[in-house]
Write a structure and sequence with these properties.
single chain; alpha+beta; nine-stranded mixed sheet; nucleic acid binding; site-specific DNA-methyltransferase (adenine-specific)
């Protein structure tokens, strides 16, 4: 092999060099030293610890007297065995000494782990270069070519065809031909052999040929093969260090590997073809395709390369059994950084792979071992049937990844053996533990690389028990383990080998795993994949393994299938299940039958909820760790409740709400929680203890069987549930049928589902120019839509169609409360009232459904622009619907049949400072829209109710699907909101009058915005005040140019909510408060100011009186300020009246009104509260009978002040604009 030359930081090096010593003085004086140079052997360094310490120092480390102190990562100290064992335990007789330390102390620094991973990454790059050369330059001389060639060629062909046939690939890739035989692959290898350098890894290329794509595929393959090679070399280095430690006789790694079954001995080439059923998604991807370089070259004495062991030796790195758990950190970090991150699209998204932080894994094992029953954790781990030797309990991980959960179990089993002298000092006991491990450790992994890593990880964790066996057995290695029950398979299908003779063992044991009645486990602790099956690369589950009546046929999260799989295979009553997943399944509709199934079959033990980004920094969804036990008898509906003989503990649900707490601190808080000492815990710990069945029955309202009743709720939520439990639903949950009753006044319509066919929504102007007036008049209708896309296949499609403006800019949603804010229409209406028809709506929906396909063909022909467009849309954006000629979607209940409807975006997002309230509005223009609600009662009455604070609370409670607060306003969610019908007609009329006036006020505000000079900035400031219910405008854009209003300025940096830093101009105007405005040209939304705090006392009348005549250089924006403040004040008063009326409608007391607003983080201002005090509960009587929804005593007075504010604002607008023009 030729010496490979690389450049790092402009330094040239060769891999093979003789090392010489360098003095400590030379090291400390070399300020320009680079630790990478040491790793790469460019600088010949002394391998002593001082050299290592010098090159790895950074700001997180302190050096004192040539010694370094590294921060020790937080690891739970799970248990002190001496405190948990009784003094007369038969397992603690005598004294003993152990060389294997607890896994909670003496750990490698996280910093050193990361630097070791960097060393491995450098070795990986070297090998990748060599592998590329061997395949492209020396293909005919490859050792063992005849045997290995089919694996390599098959793997390359599989990856190439997978990319070409992948619907998510670009159309250019989909148009390339597939490869059917090995000769074509050999031809492509020859074609790329002339390329001098390895191309960068890039899964998406804008333009490419077959050769270009194959170069990319070959690059991926070389990365995988190099990764596997480095991993196997890392195992050799670590295993050798482990064997040498504290050993009188150092056993060879080769001898250690001989204790395993030949199929588990990955250090040797297998003589048998591995089982690889063609039904697996990764068919053809055998591990043999990636291990050939290690076996043929790295283990060849003639191969001239600086091995991993040599590099570690150069740096003085030595691995000890104390650090065994940190070895797993190295494997995990190396796998994530140099494999998952490189193959992010193919690996993480394909299988939902996100590996569990170690502290979370430790916490989960703590829960199942330390927190149940009278048995100690030693009794649970060292199962000892009467008169027999201890053995390992049975453990299953159905999605084992790199084996972290299984290895944590092995570590704890080893520690348990250490704590029991009768076990640790007994060679037969240690032998039996090893033998039982090979029988009782079960796992499944679909990914071939993760599967190899898992085997390596488990093998390393067995070394401590093996070494103890050798010591006790006088170094006589006479043990042979059975084959481990680790399968490379798909848990959702558990494919069986077609050739049962050669793979009889796999067939027999997979059949056992497919039959839960014949195989049960003591512990199932795992992290199932996060992936929606219908949108991800998840296989169709086997109907023999899963019940579609419970799990459905599509749209189910993949983790739900793993819930089923685990519960079915857990031992009744004694078995333990601990899982981590997202929390959506606790309440959302998709899992209603799954929840009922779990309730019937499981004891729900405890739940621990984590905020988004807390467990995984890049995963936005929240996380839930929960623990279950399988019931012996299934609960049957209709059977009288019988209290169990042994009382169960209450179901615990914990939610730690301290957002500043780290993951470790959160876990520690959960670990420390004691339900008997709840008064001692901080306010951020929210908890709920729920009595188990039969005291608690599963709620079954609307057949949703929600588990949200287990979650801690606020005092406000409990109060509202109490006073509204008898009320009917605001929205009929069966409203898709054409039914309507007054008790459920709103009829919910889903509307057209154009997702993912966004091509059926077009820019109206572009459509008229593309299709012509006749087509557009017949097939297009205005649609309420905004562009939220800015890339991907849709961008490719619109670029090809010639309308790049369609995705030029991501637009903000025009949805606003009462009236949508559509800047291109006057008056805030959904569509413009005048002008050309193509200008009346920004977007239109193509109203072509299945029945209209033949009509379009007949009337316009297949050569028309309209037909060609729909055909291209189908090819690009409906790649899986080959039976369709053109793109279309259902148009039933799309909104054109309803003159008046209440609208809200179905995926709302969440309440925030910039969006503090819901935004229902009225459409009266027959516009197409999704998520609409109609009623036979006055629509403006329900528009006000839906935009009230009371309904906002119900929305946030019933429509949330994660802890971040994101909401979906689906029919079933809206049906959970109670409806309190009014009983006073005069109150209803007053309320409708307020809502209608609110819509008019907002329309006037929108029209005023169009008058201003800087329309976007003004709109941002006004809408922000409108949403908050504030009215004073004191930002920089409202100051007079050239006046003394701005007398001091400076540019400062401020951190925005998303973590980005922006330059803002700090200035002082009238008053002492410091105001902020974004620097000119930033285009960002003006942030909220401090002038309108809850303590504000100025009403609009006082503000208007104080407004001084404008001076200096005026613009329309400056002179419009009194107008905006007047109407914003009127809007705030009207919203207060709407909220107070709704409070009395539902009978909410004043103290709970305040608590509710605080919970929702809404602002109310003293200027309004002092004039119009809160109403307490149900107020008013009609003919001596208590009435709901009467006019507040100050109702007419508030309305009069609103009218005065509007009149003053409009008058000043006319006067000021006239003066400005003159």
């Amino acid at each position: 092999m030729a010496n490979v030359v690389k450049k790092i930081d402009s330094t040239t090096f060769t891999r093979s060099k003789r090392l010489r010593s360098k003095s400590t003085n030379e090291i400390s004086s070399n300020n320009s030293g680079d630790w990478l140079s040491v790793v790469l052997n460019d600088v010949e360094e002394d391998p002593r610890p001082e050299a290592w310490n010098y090159y790895f120092q950074d700001s997180t480390q302190t050096r004192q007297n040539s010694e370094m102190t590294f921060p020790t990562p937080y690891i739970f100290k799970t248990v002190n065995p001496a405190q948990n064992e009784s003094s007369n335990s038969h397992r603690r007789q005598g004294t003993f000494a152990s060389n294997f330390s607890s896994f909670s102390t003496n750990l490698l620094s996280e910093d050193l782990v990361s630097k070791v991973v960097e060393v491995l990454g450098i070795v990986l790059d070297d090998f990748k270069y060599d592998i590329w050369n061997e395949i492209t330059k020396n293909h005919s001389d490859l050792p063992g070519l005849e045997r290995l060639d089919p694996f390599i060629l098959s793997c390359l062909r599989r990856d190439y065809n997978k990319f070409v046939n992948d619907p998510s690939s670009s159309q250019l890739a989909n148009s390339l031909p597939t490869i059917n035989d090995d000769d074509q692959i050999r031809g492509l290898i020859a074609a790329v052999s002339s390329i001098p350098t390895i191309p960068p890894i890039s899964p998406m290329m804008s333009t490419f040929t077959v050769v270009d794509l194959f170069r990319n595929i070959l690059n991926f393959y070389c990365q995988k093969t190099s990764f596997v090679t480095v991993i196997q070399m890392l195992f050799d280095a670590i295993a050798l260090d482990f064997m040498r430690e504290d050993s009188e006789v150092v056993p060879k790694v080769e001898d250690f590997m001989k204790i395993f079954h030949e199929e588990d001995n990955f250090s040797e080439q297998s003589s048998n073809m591995p089982f690889n059923n063609d039904q697996l998604q990764s068919k053809g991807e055998n591990i043999e395709a990636f291990t050939w370089f290690y076996h043929a070259f790295v283990r060849n004495p003639q191969y001239q390369s600086c091995t991993v062991s040599a590099r570690f030796q150069t740096l003085g790195v030595h691995f000890t059994l104390e650090q065994i758990e940190q070895i797993e950190s190295i494997l995990s970090m190396f796998y994530t950084k140099h494999f998952l991150n490189v193959f992010a699209k193919e690996q993480q998204k394909d299988h939902g792979q996100f590996y569990t932080p170690r502290e979370v894994m430790i916490f989960m094992w703590d829960r199942v071992l330390v927190n149940k029953g009278n048995d100690t954790w030693l009794d649970k781990l060292l199962v000892s049937p009467l008169g027999s030797l201890p053995q390992a309990p049975s453990v299953l991980d159905p999605c084992m990844g790199i084996g972290s959960f299984l290895c944590e179990f092995i570590s704890r089993l080893t520690l348990a053996a250490q704590q029991c002298p009768n076990v640790w000092n007994n060679p037969r006991a240690i032998s039996n533990l090893l033998l039982s491990l090979s029988k009782n450790l079960w796992g499944i992994e679909i990914d071939v690389i993760a599967y190899l890593l898992c085997k390596i990880n488990i093998t390393l964790h067995i070394i401590p028990l093996f070494k103890r066996f050798l010591v006790l057995n006088n170094y006589n290695n006479n043990i042979k383990l059975e084959r481990f029950h680790l399968f490379r398979n798909d848990t959702l299908n558990l494919y069986l080998p077609e050739e049962k003779g050669e793979h009889a063992w796999e067939c027999e044991n997979l059949q056992l795993l497919r039959s839960p009645q014949n195989l049960k486990f003591d512990f199932i602790v795992t992290n199932p994949p996060y992936m929606i099956r219908k949108t991800g690369f998840i296989s169709e589950p086997d109907s023999e393994l899963f019940d579609e009546r419970v799990l459905g046929k599509g749209g189910m999260q993949a983790y739900a299938y793993f819930f089923w799989f685990c519960v079915e295979r857990c031992k009744e009553e004694t078995g333990e299940i601990c899982l981590i997943s997202a929390s959506q399944w606790m309440g959302l509709e998709f899992a209603d039958k799954l929840r009922a199934w779990l309730w019937q079959r499981c004891h729900l033990v405890e739940f621990f909820q984590f905020e988004p980004f807390k467990v995984w920094r890049k995963i936005q969804t929240d996380s839930l760790i929960f623990r279950l036990r399988r019931r012996r008898e299934i609960l049957t509906a209709g059977v009288p409740s019988v209290r169990p003989a042994v009382s169960e503990p209450k179901i615990l649900f914990l939610r730690y709400m301290n957002r500043k707490a780290t993951l470790q601190e959160t876990l520690q808080a959960y670990n420390n929680f004691n339900s008997n000492l709840t008064t001692q815990f901080e306010k951020d710990m929210h908890y709920k203890l729920t009595p188990p069945y039969p005291t608690t029955q599963l709620p079954s309202q609307t057949s949703s069987f929600s588990f949200t009743f287990l979650m801690p709720s606020s005092e406000v939520s409990t109060y509202l549930r109490t006073i509204t439990s008898h009320l009917p639903s605001l929205c009929d949950h069966a409203s898709m049928k054409h039914t309507w009753v007054e008790n459920n006044p709103l009829i919910w319509h889903r509307g057209p589902n154009t997702n993912p066919v966004y091509a059926l929504v077009v820019r109206t102007n572009w459509a008229y120019s593309k299709f012509g007036t006749d087509v557009c008049r017949r097939w297009l209708r205005p649609v309420f839509y905004w562009n939220g896309k800015n890339g991907g296949k849709e961008a490719e499609f619109w670029q090809k169609m010639g309308d790049e403006l369609r995705l030029e800019k991501k637009e903000s949603s025009p949805a606003e409360a009462y009236v949508p804010f559509i800047s291109y229409n006057s008056g805030g209406t959904t569509i413009a009232k005048g002008g050309l028809e193509q200008d009346k709506s920004m977007y239109s929906l193509i109203m072509v459904d299945r029945d209209a396909v033949d009509k379009v063909r007949r009337d316009f022909g297949e050569h028309s622009e309209f037909w060609k467009y729909l055909k291209e849309a189908r090819i690009y954006l409906q790649t899986g619907m080959n039976s369709r000629e053109i793109a279309y979607c259902g148009t039933s209940k799309c909104g054109i049949d309803f003159k008046t409807k209440i609208v809200h975006p179905i995926n709302y997002g969440y309440f925030s400072k910039n969006q503090p309230r819901q935004r229902f509005f009225i459409d009266e223009d027959n516009v197409c829209v999704t998520n609409q609600q109609t009623t036979k009662l006055p629509p403006y009455f329900f528009l006000g109710i839906l935009n009230s604070t009371t309904i906002q609370h119900f929305l946030s409670h019933h429509c949330k699907y994660d802890q971040q607060g994101r909401m979906r306003l689906f029919r079933e969610n809206m049906a959970k909101i109670p409806y309190a019908a009014p009983t006073d007609s005069e109150g209803v009329n007053w309320f409708i009058k307020c809502v209608q006036r609110m819509t008019q006020v907002r329309q006037m505000l929108y029209e005023g915005i169009h008058v201003c000079d800087e329309e976007e900035k003004v709109a941002s400031a006004v809408v922000e005040k409108l949403r908050r219910g504030a009215w004073q405008l004191s930002g920089r854009e409202w100051q007079e140019r050239g006046s003394d209003a701005i007398n001091e300025t400076s540019v400062v940096l401020r951190e925005e909510q998303d973590g980005n830093w922006v330059m803002v101009r700090q200035f002082r105007g009238r008053g002492d408060g410091v105001e902020y405005s974004l620097c000119p040209g930033s285009g960002e939304q003006i942030p909220r100011h401090d002038e309108a705090e809850p303590g504000q006392t100025s009403s609009f009348t006082e503000v208007a009186k104080d407004h001084r005549p404008p001076t200096g250089n005026l613009t329309k924006t400056h002179v419009m300020k009194p107008f905006f403040e007047a109407l914003l004040y009127a809007s705030a008063c009207l919203q207060y009246g709407i909220d107070q009326y709704t409070y009395t409608l539902y009978g909410i007391d004043a103290k709970f009104q305040v608590a509710l607003e605080e919970e929702l983080k809404l602002e109310l201002f003293e200027a309004i509260l002092s004039k119009y005090p809160r109403l307490n509960g149900i107020v008013g009587n009609v003919d001596g009978v208590e009435a709901r929804g009467t006019i507040p005593e100050w109702g007419e007075r508030l309305y009069e002040e609103v009218e005065m504010s509007i009149e003053k604002g409009q008058r000043q607008k006319r006067i000021l604009l006239q003066g400005h023009e003159n």
